[in-house]
Amino acid sequence: MTRDPQLGLVLIGPPGVGKGTQALRIRDEFALDHIATGDLLREHRARDTELGRQATQFMTTGRLVPDELVLAMVQERIAASRRFLLDGFPRTLAQAHALTGALAQSGRELTAVIFVDAPDETVIERIAGRADGRDDDDVETVRRRLELFLASTAPVIDHYAREGRLHRIDAARPIEAVYEDAHALLVRLTAASVEI
Questions:
Q1: What is the rounded average pLDDT of the residues 99-110?
Q2: How many Å is the Cα radius of gyration of the chain?
Q3: Closest among 157, 101, 148 to 123, alpha carbons compared
């Protein structure tokens, strides 16, 4: 009898590209532990863990939670999971290197990085047209968010492309077409990593 193979995935994409929609479907169909850093931070704060208390000290003063704390939370969750989907992490090259090191400590590595991407104008149209628009959904703010995403994440995308782990999916298409590509990719990856 075969066991579910280990699977370590990262899902990266700019704001408004539909990454969250795809993450939920991928999580459900492939029985993955969905790990989103925002959720982890809220969970640790709610449970009043030591990591949560440390993170709160930064968050309540409007500062970013240091990579070391976020990575500790991610590492704890990954250690408890054979099959995970990191959603939106790593966002910087330093985080990518730290993640590689953390996985190596337990003899693991990422299976793949899925880059869900669409042209800026497509993303801007989607975000600006959302019915549940947020205060930061105006066109100029969305452009700035996209610029920040690209500035911090382009080196991460290049890094994983050089490692041969990056798989691009065109998200300018309908949700179902994007999911069909993601599904086909995960079926191939799962088949390639089956343990006997």
A1: 91
A2: 17
A3: 148
Coil, strand, or helix at residue 27? helix
The string of DSSP letters for 101-148 reads HHHHHTT----EEEEEE--HHHHHHHHHT-TT--TT-SHHHHHHHHHH
Q: Residue 187 in contact with residue 134, Cβ under 8 Å? A: no
Structure confidence by residue, pLDDT tens digits, 149-192: 899 899 999 999 999 999 999 999 999 999 999 999 999 998 87
The half-sphere exposure of 179 on its side-chain side, counting CA atoms within 13 A, is 15
Identify the pLDDT of residue 28: 94
SS3 93: helix
- Work out the burial of residue 5: count CB atoms within 10 Å of its CB; fewer than 13 is exposed, 13-18 middle, 19 or more buried: middle
- Report the C-alpha gap between 49 and 155 in whole angstroms: 32
User: Is pLDDT at 103 greater than 50 in this prediction?
Assistant: yes
